[in-house]
Amino acid sequence: MIFFSLFNSIKLFYVLQILFILLLLLISSAFLSFIERRILALFQNRYGPNRVGLFGCLQVLADMIKIIFKEDWNPNFSNKLLFNLAPILAFNTLLSVFAILPITPYIIISNLNIGILFFFMMASISVYSILFAGLASNNKYALLGAIRGVAQIISYEIFLGLSLMGIVCQTESFNLLDIIYYQYKHYWNIIPQFFGFIPFLIASIALCHRHPFDQPETEQELIDGYHIEYSGMKFGLFFIGEYINIIVLSSLIVILFFGGWLGPFFTPIIWFLIKTIIFIILFFLIRASLPRPRYDKVIYFGWFICLPLTLINLILTACLTKFK
Predict the structure, then answer these.
(1) Which residues, in sequence order, are CB contacts of 302 under 8 Å at separation 6+?
(2) 3-state secondary structure of 285
(3) With 60 as the cut, is the pLDDT of residue 4 above it?
(4) Rounded to whole angstroms, how far apart are CA atoms 180 and 182?
(5) CA distance 247 to 207
């Protein structure tokens, strides 16, 4: 009886952890849209949303109610299975990565030994959400957006992976918890892996389809791209999924390059949140300050600038690891 009671207590603890992280992610991703709009308004010398609630903070609630009660429909001649599957994949792929992220030494759902490989796998699966949305919509603009998105993600995932191989060589582990403890014993990975950090940051922005890498959904060219035919909660899943991707990738940057929860004076969770929020705001500032380049320039930038940079970083790391 004691064994079963202990087993049930452990199960309850993990369930509560999962529910806490999921609820925190959903609320944070919803409010990030409001924060981004206010930051963009500040950069563009306008007010932004400021009517609903105190300083406009209830605008998120109004937007959620509007999306929930919008008509949820399938376009004629669409592939209904793929059309409905695409937003679910977009929402769930990188959301599942949060299960392996060590927020503190005690807040981690699953301590996988292949944590980095699991992240790569989920990032690769996210490509299918764009592909399915474009193919199933029976719309030429959606199809063009999907082709752009798939080509961009496949290209930048190569640099995303190679930029992390330097950390794997240095720490000799794919486990995210081991990588944080390595930084605790030595120094943050941003110091020896700076040339790996820059391509990883750029590839993370491209993976989220954030400006200036929002080529799959350029309003001026493709009228919102691959999710042009989506409305209601299906569009809401794409919308919230984009901000969840930002949170997950910002958290990964903090864990891999900036020591995770490590820091003086404050508790681990406070340090983790401070570092993550800094990179989330950086995503927004990049959108506010940079123009959108031409599509061929985006692909050229990846293959001719990011790829050599990651290869140089990998060779230097291998040499330093060999002769240290």
Answers:
(1) 152, 155, 156, 159, 206
(2) helix
(3) no
(4) 5
(5) 12
- Tell me the C-alpha distance between 13 and 107, whole Å: 10
**Nearest to 218, CA basis, from 148, 153, 282, 150:** 148
Q: What is the mean pLDDT of the chain?
A: 82
d(CA 189, CA 211): 26
CB 306 within 8 A of CB 202: yes
pLDDT tens digits for 230-287?
A: 777 888 888 888 888 888 899 999 999 988 888 888 888 889 989 999 999 998 888 8
Average pLDDT over residues 128-150: 82
At position 56, the amino acid (one-letter code) is G
CB 100 within 8 A of CB 255: no
- Gap between the Cα atoms of 215 and 301, Å rounded: 14
Share of the chain above pLDDT 90, in %: 4
Q: What are phi and psi of 193, to 5 degrees?
A: -115, 35
Q: Is residue 293 reached through a cis peptide bond, with omega within 30 degrees of 0 on the bond before it?
A: no
